[in-house]
Amino acid sequence: LAKWPTKIRVLPRGMPTRMPTIDQNVQAVVYQALLQDQKLRIAYNKNINGVAPAKPLTSIVSPLALVVRDGVVYLVCVYDGHSEPRQLALHRMSAADQLEISADRPKGFSIDEYIAEGEFGISLNPKPIKLEAEFLKHVAIHLRESPITDSQTITEVDEDNVLLRATVADTLELRFWLKSFGDEVEV
Fold it and tell me: Is 185 helix (H, G, I), strand (E, B) or coil?
């Protein structure tokens, strides 16, 4: 068992990048507040049109969950006075203080439902789309092993091609995924 960590690696899809550095004090405070369901006062370096403001924005938030995506740790939270969950990258927090105030949790909030609704995707259309994409047949094994949705269907078109049908969120990630197949797909 001691050698187990030396035998496992997880590789990112696409171009590997380094994970952003998170202030360890901020991380500890955020994790503790999340664990104890207490509000946080944070200083956040919000990226506005690719430019960080000269001074971090100070806000009070209720932590709901943590999500790690492509090496970036996000705090899903609700700003005081608002009800819609937001995502804040921990590496953009320059300060965090745990408050002795219970966090406000939206009724019925589920991190799994939040993610399933596409909240971590960059939406290009508020409504789901009906995707029909014809792939070269050798791609079908990948499509069957890693479905893009539980309700997708794959049918043979001819000896060289299959047709994928699925209702999916129209996101930038979907477009990048489709483009990654190059001339092996026709949408």
Answer: strand
Residues ≥6 apart with Cβ < 8 Å to 127: 170
CA-nearest of 28, 32, 31, 30 to 44 is 30
The CA-CA-CA angle for residues 29, 119, 122, to 5°, reads 115
Summarised one tens digit per residue, pLDDT across range 20-55 is 999 999 999 999 999 999 999 999 998 766 666 678
How buried is residue 5: exposed, middle or buried, by Cβ count under 10 Å (0-12/13-18/19+)? exposed
For residue 54, the 8-state DSSP code is S
Report the alpha-carbon distance of residue 130 to residue 153 in Å, rounded.
12
Model-level pTM? 0.72
Can you spell out the DSSP letters for 103-155? PP--TT--HHHHHHTTTTS-BS-SS-EEEEEEEEGGGHHHHHHS-SSTT-EEE
Per-residue tokens: 112: 């799994």
